[in-house]
Amino acid sequence: MSSSAFRTVPASADVVIVGGGVMGASTAFHLAEAGVTNIVVVERGELGCGSSGKPIGGVRAQFSDPLNIELGSRSLRAYREFGHRPGADIRLDTVGYLFLLDSARQTSDFEAAVQLQNSLGVPSRMIAPEEARRLCPYLSTDGLVAAAYSPADGHARPGLVVQGYARAAAGAGVTIATHTTVSGLDTAGDRVVGVHTSHGRIACATVICAAGAWSARIGEMAGVNLPVQPVKRQLAFTAPITPPAPRVPFTIDFSSTAYFHNSDDGLLLGMADPDQEDGFDTTWTPEWLELFRTVARRRAPALAGLETTGGWAGLYEVTPDHNALIGRSAELPNFLYAAGFSGHGFLQAPAVGEVMRDLYLEREPFTDMSPLSADRFHHGAETRPEAHVV
């Protein structure tokens, strides 16, 4: 599949998908597989150059909200079968996810979530600190009260997933217009009728916004409120470790959000900076590593002194309740959106691609998605705060 820029875009399309990350690629694949033709994916850079560009993405079904559990579970199944459908090696490593808990309150919250997860078929369980250390020998159990573990979770490579979906979509006739920026949307009455891009206008019957951290801007062009804020997140890679690092779960110190897992011949280290301001800045600043090291000295002392060889900064696309925006605009019924995943987009992308296909085809998705409508923030509807946020 060529990712060379189109000099012009097609003059018209049935569906224009804004955003060539994992959400846009999954949506394009699922639509094309269902026989929808005349689809254009518009991406301002290379495919997966936004939030999906991160080197390793966790995949899990351990959440506190039933909808997130369902989206995570269904996506995990799709990732396990990705080699057959659409057909690509995504370097899925099912090492499990291990949440480390250091208070009675966290423990009772996770116990309730594990019960809910188990009722929905997720094989998670609560474990004692000693078992957590057997799973992850780096740990110090000082101050640990318990841990939550699911062996079915793990991590994969988002870039490979984007390419796998996009290659299959292109093979089914989807036009992928990279290096093409959306500059405006035309509306007439209650419809979106055109998309203005840096390579020409596309008359269209449907627009699907999958623009990640930039989705609020796309929504504004159509007069649709998508409350998504960009927040920088950073990670680092260690130098190769000898003897080789043990194979460990994706391990998260829940109180601090510090996490680590295997990456090639070393480890990947990450953590949210609680003082990080909103914005589109993706400059990697090695100083944040001191935050990680401070936590590591207490929780995984051997990691605190490891040499790092660089890192990466990307954007979370955060909503007020840390849950996604998935649905169809009430004001513009042919404007659909899948955005605001608050760090969980990659792990939910296969299931969300199915949902977007079904919303477009006006058929019932596998579960009721109406609680994730963007309207929940301005109709006084109940929001659904997700607790298992990193």
UniProtKB/TrEMBL annotation:
Residues 14-359 form the FAD dependent oxidoreductase domain. Keywords: Oxidoreductase. It comes from the Bacteria. Signal peptide: none annotated. This is FAD-binding oxidoreductase. It comes from Streptomyces rhizosphaericus.
